[in-house]
Specification:
Blueprint: E1 8-15, H1 18-28, E2 32-39, E3 42-51, E4 60-65, E5 78-86, H2 91-100, E6 105-110, E7 113-119, E8 125-130, E9 152-159, H3 163-173, E10 177-182, E11 185-189, E12 197-201, E13 214-222, H4 225-237, E14 246-247, E15 251-257, E16 263-271, H5 296-302
Parallel strand pairs: 1-4, 5-8, 9-12, 13-16
Antiparallel strand pairs: 1-13, 2-3, 3-4, 5-9, 6-7, 7-8, 10-11, 11-12, 14-15, 15-16
Length: 312
């Protein structure tokens, strides 16, 4: 039986100074910091999660901020562009807001849609697209109100070292449907209302190198733990070298690097981000997994102080 992911669960990237990261994604883009924790494999580094007001799957961008790390290069084997979806009629607001904060941007058209393209402070390629689909984000911060707020991911553009093989993985493993081709891009769609559009660049370029300003991995949605185990078997049966299931506290996950060298994760929708703090207080304090709680004082001392603040 063919399996199909609902769409993107989250996207994780590497950035520089954590306060600059917060000032941009919360201060400029108006996203909610829904979780501040640490990298489970490197607890001296933050792992910051931003999303809509409820921290729903399909809205979450996560970051490993290394203040003094080397700059990466966006290229083949990576997610090249992260796309956010905003309400219809709000692109003028976003153009004016980017101008207010002296963020250079350009307008483009792809598959009949107008997009605004720009970079974050650390070099990640970001774009905004307006669509009717997707529920309203009721989070308000720094002058961004629900009427114009980012709903979540519109999707992503993948840069593959072997585009034809990545295309096969998207359709035959992840279950995305082919929409069409325009220029150098082929578009695929998942069934969710947000985080559902993938544009695959069908020509190769420079090979990406991991570092600040690059995406580490893209994660796809699994309904629950039972579905995740089914995905583990299914992806393995379709030629992917899949990891064991890993407990990420806010979801369980497995990983495989598809043939075009892009790191794919499959992550469960539950338990979500409010199981270790309330929905009202999410993101307001450092949350540690049980294995690091005894090191809290040491870790707090080593981490760069951060705060969510309006920057108007």
């Amino acid at each position: 039986m063919k399996k199909q992911t609902a769409g993107i669960h989250h996207i994780t990237a590497i950035v520089g100074h954590p306060q600059e990261n917060i000032d941009f994604y919360a201060g400029v883009l108006g996203l909610r910091l829904v979780k501040q924790t640490v990298n489970f494999d490197d607890p001296g580094t933050y792992h910051l999660y931003f999303g809509d007001g409820g921290g729903k799957p399909g809205t979450i961008i996560t970051f490993f901020p290394w203040a003094d790390a080397y700059q990466g290069q966006i290229g083949d084997g990576q997610v090249g562009v992260t796309t956010y979806v905003v309400p219809e009629g709000s692109l003028d607001f976003w153009g004016n807001r980017l101008t207010k904060f002296s963020i250079e941007f350009k307008k483009a058209e792809r598959f009949g849609e107008q997009v605004i393209q720009f970079d974050d402070p650390h070099g990640l390629h970001v774009e905004l697209v307006a669509r009717a689909e997707g529920g309203q984000n009721n989070w308000t911060f720094g002058g961004v109100t629900p009427e114009v707020a980012i709903k979540g991911f519109g999707g992503a553009t993948l840069y593959s070292s072997k585009p034809e093989e990545t295309a096969e993985t998207l359709t035959n493993v992840m279950g995305l449907e082919l929409v069409g081709t325009e220029g150098d891009y082929t578009r695929y769609q998942a069934p969710a209302a947000i985080g559902n559009i993938i544009d695959l660049k069908m020509i190769t370029g420079v090979r990406g190198t991991m570092g600040v300003g690059t995406v580490h991995h893209i994660a796809w949605r699994a309904k629950d733990d039972a579905a995740l185990l089914e995905w583990q078997q299914y992806a393995g049966d379709h030629g992917q070298y899949v990891t064991e299931v890993k407990d990420r506290n806010y979801f369980n996950a497995l990983y495989f690097r598809e043939s075009g060298e892009i790191l794919f994760e499959i992550a469960t929708d539950p338990p979500g981000f409010a199981h270790d703090e309330t929905a009202e207080t999410m993101g307001t304090q450092l949350m540690l997994p049980a294995q690091y709680e005894q090191r809290r004082e040491q870790l707090v001392h080593s981490l760069i102080p951060i705060q969510v603040r309006p920057i108007d």
